């Protein structure tokens, strides 16, 4: 699967921890796209939120969605990253730092762990879209 990700042009994968004081990312010209998800086991639903900022911290857009039939927190996190990437594409942000707090997802994108079957199609979709943009995937706490 790692070979498929590389062939799909999944982009550069980085790991970075942000400080609690909101330290800004370094690269000018990039849009920071922060993605997060919520999940309810009892209802089998999830939610995704996306916030975009430039390198000065200026707000550049946001997105929110409710998800139906979500199997796990991992599925919700992958959906959040995918929807964040799609939102950035629609906003014409072609150079982005796509952030998630899901270390497991970043490790799958890095090839440090296998891609779980429940999210394989979504991860491949993320990589195909990322191929058409300049994307840096980042883990944030």
From TrEMBL:
Which Gene Ontology MF annotations are present? nucleic acid binding; RNA-DNA hybrid ribonuclease activity
Q: Mind telling me which Pfam families this protein's record contains?
A: RVT_3
Q: Which residues form the RNase H type-1 domain?
A: 34-140
Q: Which InterPro entries match?
A: RNase_H-like, RNase_H-like_dom_plant, RNaseH-like_sf, RNaseH_domain, RNaseH_sf
Check the record and name the Gene3D superfamilies matching this protein.
Ribonuclease H-like superfamily/Ribonuclease H (3.30.420.10)
Q: Which SUPFAM superfamilies match?
A: Ribonuclease H-like (SSF53098)
Q: What is this protein called?
A: RNase H type-1 domain-containing protein
Taxon lineage: Eukaryota, Viridiplantae, Streptophyta, Embryophyta, Tracheophyta
């Amino acid at each position: 699967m790692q070979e498929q990700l590389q062939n799909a042009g999944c982009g550069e994968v980085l790991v970075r921890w942000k400080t609690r004081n909101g330290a800004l990312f370094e690269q000018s010209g990039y849009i920071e796209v922060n993605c997060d998800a919520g999940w309810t086991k009892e209802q089998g639903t999830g939610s995704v939120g996306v916030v975009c900022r430039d390198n000065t911290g200026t707000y550049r857009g946001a997105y929110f969605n409710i998800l139906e039939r979500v199997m796990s927190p991992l599925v919700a996190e992958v959906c959040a990253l995918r929807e964040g990437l799609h939102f950035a594409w629609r906003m014409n942000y072609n150079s982005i730092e796509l952030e998630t707090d899901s270390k497991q997802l970043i490790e799958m994108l890095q090839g440090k762990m296998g891609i779980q079957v429940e999210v394989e199609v979504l991860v491949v979709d993320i990589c195909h879209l990322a191929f058409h943009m300049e994307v840096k995937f980042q883990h944030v706490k």
